[in-house]
Amino acid sequence: MKKAINTYVSGTGAAVPDTVITNSDLEKMVETNDHWIVSRTGIRERRKLEEGLSNIDLSERASREAIKRAGLDPSELDMIIVATVTPDHPTPSTSCLLQARLKAFNAAAFDLSAGCTGFIYGLTVGHQFICSGIYKNILVVGVEVLSRVTDWEDRSTCVLFGDGAGAVVLSRTEKERGIINFSLHADGRGANLLIIPAGGSAIPACEESLQNRMHFLKMNGNEIFKFAVKVVEENLSRMLRHNNLKPGDLDYLFLHQANLRIIDHIRKRLKIPQEKVPVNIDRFGNTSSATIPIAIHEEIVAGRMAEGDLVAMVAFGAGLTWGGLVMKW
Ligand code: UT7
Predict the structure, then answer these.
(1) pTM higher than 0.85, yes or no?
(2) How far is CA 126 from CA 67, 95, 134, 233, 263, in A?
(3) Which end of the chain has fewer CB within 10 Å, C or N?
(4) Model pLDDT, residue 3
């Protein structure tokens, strides 16, 4: 009998800028303080990409590491998916720029915009191409340079975000491992809750859009917080139930790093021990689609996560979008 094809992660990589912005740096820029930021968000510092560099530079560094760890040559990639809301240009896609940098000329390439859920959407899309038997190796990158769309005069957002990239190579396997379940969702009625109003076809760049600071990210934090707490738990519980699994069966739960209070709340509700729910928001802030792949890579590099571990990941963000994935590593 023909064995079933599945998708597993054959390599991981991550890259963050060298420049650190601490809470005390922010105290000098806007009316805020370390106590407020740490107690409300869990963030102590974040990274900011240096002038002259852009999304593609972070994407390339994370991707090269993931490809190397997968034991592949870039020419063996069949597809590149870059999940980002901060591409180098509206067009061409960052994935095409990345394909050229990597000399991965056998790869199809496109960007995917699903806010902070972009990496989960990317993994799920890549998984379809592998399961269909068409492709063998797909690079998925979650990358953001949010410092370039952050309003550094708005204390309600500028303390939250950071720059970074995480990458994985998805590969075909016929072994008893890989993706077990996934679940993607969206609710466009919440589009205005997290938005960069200008710079697209609705409000092209003009004097007024610049004066009104409409090229910066605007967020209704309270509403997103309530939405996140509800959908993350629902989503994860449904995925686990569908496969007769319980939260206690998980070796790892990677949650989108938007707020430590959200992470702790969900972890406690599901009674999952702290060491199974990695946190990097304290060091990197909210790096949107990059938070989960960076956290995964950190666990791999530390030698803590291993083949056979039961791993879940859940994210939520602009769109609104949310989604999750369960896999046997
Ligand atoms: O990545 C996916 C999308 N993002 C998220 O998931 C974010 C989800 N939301 C959150 O994490 C939280 O809602 C925030 C961290 C954004 C805000 O925390 P909060 O506990 O919901 O605070 P708040 O917005 O209700 O503000 C409370 C107070 C306000 O003052 P008043 O009106 O009570 O006097 C704010 O003006 O805190 C004030 N405030 C600040 N104070 C010091 C807001 N930002 C700051 C600041 N420093 N940076």
Answers:
(1) yes
(2) 15, 14, 11, 25, 27
(3) N
(4) 74
Instruction: Tell me: do 76 and 189 sit in the same domain.
Output: no
| Catalytic option among 23, 256, 280, 297 | 256
Q: Where are the beta strands (DSSP E) in the chain?
A: 6-15, 20-22, 45-47, 79-83, 108-112, 137-145, 163-173, 178-186, 194-195, 218-219, 252-255, 310-317, 321-328
| pLDDT for 41 | 98
Does ligand 1 have an atom closer than 6 angstroms to the CB of 286? yes
Nearest residue by C-alpha to atom 18 in ligand 1:
40
Which residues partner with 253 through β-bridges? Answer: 312
Looking at residue 1, its pLDDT comes to: 60
Q: What is the pLDDT of residue 215?
A: 97
Residue 50 domain-assigned (yes or no): yes
Task: Give yes or no for residue 211 CB within 6 A of ligand 1.
Answer: no
Same domain for 165 and 218? no
Cα of 220 from ligand 1 centre, angstroms:
9
1, part of any domain: no
* 278 lies in the same domain as 167: no
Residues 152 and 184 both lie in one domain: no
Q: What is the pLDDT of residue 2?
A: 67
Please indicate, yes or no, whether residues 290 and 318 belong to a single structural domain of this protein.
yes
Give the chain's domain count: 2
Residue range of the domain that includes 12: 6-177
* Ligand 1 contact via 317 beta carbon (within 6 Å): yes
Same domain for 193 and 166:
no
State both tokens at 62.
């994370």
Ligand 1, atom 39: nearest CA belongs to which residue? 156
Mean pLDDT for back-to-back runs of 10 residues, the chain (329 residues): 86 98 97 97 98 98 98 98 97 98 98 98 98 96 98 97 98 94 97 96 96 96 94 94 95 98 95 96 98 98 95 97 97
Domain CATH for 315: 3.40.47.10
Q: Do 124 and 143 belong together in one domain?
A: yes
Q: In sequence order, which residues have a C-beta less than 8 Å from that of residue 249 and are 6 or more positions away?
A: 240, 310
Q: Are residues 86 and 28 in the same domain?
A: yes
Indicate which residue of 23, 55, 235, 286 is catalytic. 286
For residue 108, how far is its CA from the centre of ligand 1 (angstroms)?
A: 41
Catalytic, 35? Answer: no
